[in-house]
């Protein structure tokens, strides 16, 4: 059997079932001991050679067909980051509670994420960085104040940062805020206010923005606006943009600095990053038509995407 004929039969067998592909491979390679995984990998190679090739092509529906290619891990990342990335795509991680929590009720997801993923990293952060964490409230909103254990330096004592944690507007409350704030506070010498803003599915937009506004108003009683910075990662980054829009709408002075990390300034709803991000992270890619990722975020279910404070 020549290679061209094998490729054709491999496609047919894969459509029928992977067991048939395995049988075909065993015949073609004269009884070689092929596992199901190896057979599927071989099929992927066959399909890659016969699939989209050459330059990217744009269809009439403005959909881009991108040729199959190998995407190396970023050369800018550390060896530790590469090792962690490989682990999170390993069978060991796939069997972990964190990897298997997605279909559980949200309360169970939060508990698993905190116990098995975030809290161990918070414990490590406390070993590496000397800070104090004090809980409290501002404007009726739960906050945690993170400071260097040795105290905030005099030249930074009239300044403060607001941290808006990540977590997909569903989880990471308090724990993610600590994890993001502890190193920054220790290394930079900053006083950081981590805000436990309301999230979905229990709450809807603009609940989180309202909570950030309440905290910001309280801080304005003590700090000049130019001495207040606000930052967030992922969902927290989106919330930074929404909070700035809300401050402007409410006539509040703009803070002196804003940081949007791991996020954009708009609503998560089908931009090209909905495809590029999972692909570059080794995750399943959503269908090319009719994608609206906001459906996955209960917090935004009742939000008007044309509202300036949303986008």
Give the helices and strands as they follow along the chain. HHHEEHHHEEEHEHEHEH
Number of helices: 10
Q: Describe the global form.
A: globular
Which percent range describes the beta-strand content?
5-15%
Average the pLDDT over all residues and give the rounded result. Answer: 83
Structural class determined from secondary elements = alpha/beta
Short key terms for the protein model shown above:
two-stranded antiparallel sheet, 13% strand, 10 helices
Give structural notes:
This protein has 311 residues and is of the alpha/beta class. The termini are far apart. The chain is globular. It has 10 helices and 8 strands.
Map the helices and strands:
Layout: H1 3-16, H2 18-28, H3 36-50, E1 57-58, E2 64-65, H4 79-87, H5 91-94, H6 106-128, E3 131-138, E4 141-148, E5 160-164, H7 175-188, E6 192-195, H8 207-220, E7 228-233, H9 235-249, E8 257-261, H10 273-280
Task: Write a concise synopsis of the structure shown.
By secondary structure, the chain is α/β, with parallel strands linked by helices. The chain contains ten helices and eight strands.
């Amino acid at each position: 059997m020549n290679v061209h004929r094998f490729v054709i039969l491999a496609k047919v067998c894969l459509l029928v079932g992977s067991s048939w592909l395995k049988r075909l491979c065993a015949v073609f390679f004269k009884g070689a001991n092929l596992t199901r995984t190896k057979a599927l990998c071989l099929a992927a190679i066959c399909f890659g050679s016969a699939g989209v090739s050459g330059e990217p092509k744009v269809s009439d529906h403005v959909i881009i067909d991108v040729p199959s290619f190998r995407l190396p891990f970023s050369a800018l990342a550390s060896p530790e980051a590469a090792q962690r990335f490989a682990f999170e795509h390993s069978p060991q991680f796939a069997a972990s509670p964190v990897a298997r929590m997605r279909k559980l009720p949200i309360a169970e997801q939060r508990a698993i994420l905190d116990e098995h993923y975030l809290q161990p990293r918070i414990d490590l952060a406390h070993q590496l960085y000397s800070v104090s964490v004090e809980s409290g409230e501002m404007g009726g909103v739960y906050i945690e104040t993170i400071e260097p254990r040795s105290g905030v330096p005099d030249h930074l004592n009239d300044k403060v940062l607001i941290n808006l944690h990540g977590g997909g507007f569903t989880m990471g409350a308090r724990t993610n805020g600590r994890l993001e704030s502890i190193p920054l506070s220790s290394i930079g010498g900053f006083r950081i206010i981590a805000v436990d803003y309301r999230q979905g599915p229990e709450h809807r937009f603009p609940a989180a923005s309202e909570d950030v506004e309440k905290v910001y108003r309280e801080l304005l009683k003590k700090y000049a606006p130019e001495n207040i910075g606000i930052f967030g990662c992922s969902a927290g980054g989106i919330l930074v943009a929404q909070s700035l829009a809300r401050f402007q709408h409410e006539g509040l002075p703009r803070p002196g600095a804003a940081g949007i990390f791991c996020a954009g300034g708009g609503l998560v709803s089908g931009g090209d990053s909905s495809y590029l991000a999972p692909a570059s992270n080794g995750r399943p890619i959503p269908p090319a038509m009719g994608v609206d990722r906001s459906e996955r975020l209960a917090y935004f279910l009742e939000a008007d995407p044309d509202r300036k404070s949303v986008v």
